[in-house]
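Annex B. Sample input.
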Amino acid sequence: MRKSLSSVLLLVAGLLCNFGQAQAGETRWVHGSWVNVRAKPEANAEVLTHLVANTQVQMDAAASSAKFCAITWGEGQQGFIACNLLGDKALRLEDFVDSYNRSSESTNYFPARTFWMAPSFRRLQDAGSYFQETMLSPQQKLLETVDSKFVWDKRPELKRFPIPEFEAMKQRMMAGVIEPASPYFKPPAPWEELLKLAKSEEIPGKKTTDATVRLHSSLFYTGVLVMLRQLDLPAAAPSYFKSLDELGRPSANPEEISRQYQIPYAIKPVSGPYWDNYEPAGINVIGWWDLGKVDVFLQKPVIKNMLMLDGRIKSASSDLKYSLGVDSCKQGFRFIGSEDQAEPVKSLAQRKLESLKPSTKDEAILYFYTRTDLPPLHGSAKVTTQAPFKLQYDSKAKSNTFEHFSQASITTIDIDKDGIADFVIAEAWHRGVMLDSVTHQPAYRVIFVNAGGRWYLFDIDQYLMCGC
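Annex B, continued. Sample output.
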């Protein structure tokens, strides 16, 4: 009797298991970007909702047809979806190209799908541009074409219509996202790696400059490498910053800080696309479908730490907001506190000598971001600027270098005054091709940070006629 009962129980357990498997169905993933889920397996049936790329669903094969698959997802939600928009594996970002490496032959460029797979502001822009490329009428495209007959005063109206998927994308970004990992973002490079490249060739060629650009986008001038290999940074040892993760770069935007600290950032649309008549670029339409001017900001502020000329550190909360499409061009170095610097530009040494004057007391050398307040410091940082030294170029390098720097100077910053530098700013002079004056002026600053006892190229700050 016991044996017979055990057999029955095993049979019932097996049936229940099989029933559970049948109820669960077969796992599938949505492969479209914004897929209609219909109430019935018919092309014109009511659309219940939309599912985005890589949404996991369960497919009921018995209730499906060749064209429409019966699915369930979420908390018991049901409907029908076109079977050709389902796959048996999740989509992978690495299987798609993006706007950075797209070519005319690319057949795997689907910016809407990649947006839903890993939402970001750049992917929203890519999707908007793609909608403009594929959904704008030929007549409107022709109206917006700038040619020799184009008259600025008679520029046509930029007409767009709502695209439900793009509206949903904007809502997603307005709600806030954490910036996903990117193959294009490179963490600060170790100084020894940069120095090795700088010393690899007497006159750096394309192979070397390409390699250094991958370390930092502003390292494409051969003269910068010639200058860098003549720098003598102080010895690094463990000091105030234990790792690079502790601090964000001066040039970091909300997207970068979001990725680094896992803080959501969001957008706020301000206006639609607009005509722009910026002289170097000519007349253009600026925008991504019906999106033009946009505010981008962190949803939770971080701490902006400004290192002043006299060694004080002034800290305040910041959401790193920037307004895309709004002219915020400023003269001078970007990573300082003042709005601009009058010509001729003063070096750090000159400015430090004047730091006791009331007009310059609150000027900054640089700033950096931290997630929370810095640990308490006893007094101001020690700031030391060396006398400038002349840079050496042979005649061939001098004649073939676009950016020829005449001299450089090193400024060290010891935040906790333990005798070990925490920042180094290498400042270089040159007579820029856009400057009328023949006087050589400070034009380039390379900022290094000591993290965990190792120097890293933290950021680069250039003086431009427009510091944007």
